[in-house]
Design a protein that fits this description.
The structure is a single chain. With about 230 residues, this protein is an alpha+beta fold. The protein is about 15% helix and about 45% strand. A hairpin with a 2-residue loop joins β2 (about 20-25) and β3 (about 25-35). It starts with 5 loop residues before the first strand and ends in a 5-residue tail after the last strand.
Length: about 230
C-alpha cells in the first residue's frame, strides 16, 4: 500500500479523538486522526509525524495524520489500513490456496467480521485488528478496553464449534518488535477471551509491517505469547 502527497511535520496536540494540530510548512494545521485509540505513547508534543495532504474541497482538516516516529521506529496509525495490508498479503499466496477469495464485511450470527475466506473447500471467518502499541519490543493489543473485541473472539470460537475455520489476525503497524501479546494490564477480559478462543481452535496470528513515510506492506509473522 502506497500513500501519495505525504510530508513530515511536528505533532502539537490532539483536540479530540478525530482532530489533532501539527506544524507543517511553518504553520499550524488541522489533521484528521483516523485512529481513535489513545495512542498516548505516540502522540506526544514535539513528535515527528507523517501527514498526507487532502485536496477535498471544503474539508475542515486539510491533512490526515498517517504515522508517528517513536525513537528510531516509524509507526503507522492509519486504522483503515490493516485490512488492506492483510488482504494484499493473502493475495500474494500467503495463508490460503490461490483459489481462495476474501469476501469483506461478512455477517455471521450477530457479529460482522472483516473477511470470509471462501474457496478450496474451506470457509474461514477472519477478524483483523491493527496494533500500534509497543512496550519494550512487545506489540500489545488493545491500547484501550474493547468490549467489541471480546465479542468478536467469542463469536469466532462459536464459529469453530459450528465447523468454520477462524482467525484473529493482529496487524502490527511497525517493524522492530519481537513478539505479540494481549494487553493484560489494559483489558484482562480481552486477554482471557483470546486465550479461550485459542483453546477453542481459533487461529491467532500476528503480522508485522514494513513502514515508510509513504508506504506500508506486510512483513513477517511474529511469535504470539498468550
Amino acid at each position: 500500500m502506497e500513500y501519495r502527497h505525504t510530508q513530515t511535520g511536528v505533532f502539537l496536540t490532539r483536540l479530540n479523538r478525530f482532530v489533532a494540530l501539527a506544524e507543517a510548512n511553518g504553520e499550524t494545521v488541522a489533521c484528521h486522526v483516523k485512529n481513535t485509540g489513545r495512542c498516548k505513547e505516540l502522540l506526544v508534543p514535539g513528535a515527528k509525524v507523517v501527514l498526507q495532504s487532502s485536496f477535498a474541497q471544503g474539508r475542515k482538516t486539510p491533512y490526515t495524520l498517517l504515522a508517528v516516529y517513536k525513537g528510531g521506529r516509524i509507526v503507522n496509525i492509519d486504522s483503515q489500513i490493516p485490512n488492506r495490508v492483510f488482504a494484499e498479503w493473502v493475495e500474494k499466496g500467503n495463508l490460503f490456496p490461490s483459489e481462495t477469495k476474501l469476501r469483506p464485511e461478512w455477517k455471521y450470527g450477530d457479529s460482522r467480521f472483516d473477511f470470509l475466506a471462501d474457496g478450496g473447500g474451506r470457509k474461514a471467518l477472519i477478524e483483523v485488528k491493527g496494533v500500534t502499541l509497543e512496550e519494550n519490543g512487545v506489540a500489545l493489543f488493545p491500547d484501550a478496553p474493547t468490549e467489541r473485541g471480546v465479542k468478536h473472539l467469542h463469536s469466532l470460537a462459536n464459529a469453530v464449534a459450528e465447523g468454520f475455520d477462524a482467525y484473529a489476525v493482529f496487524v502490527v503497524q511497525m517493524k522492530g518488535v519481537t513478539i505479540f501479546a494481549p494487553n493484560e494490564k489494559m483489558h484482562p477480559a480481552f486477554a482471557e477471551a483470546l486465550r479461550k478462543a485459542h483453546a477453542a481452535g481459533v487461529n491467532i496470528l500476528a503480522l508485522d509491517c514494513v513502514v515508510t513515510e509513504n508506504s506500508i506492506i506486510a512483513g513477517d509473522l511474529l511469535p504470539v505469547q498468550l
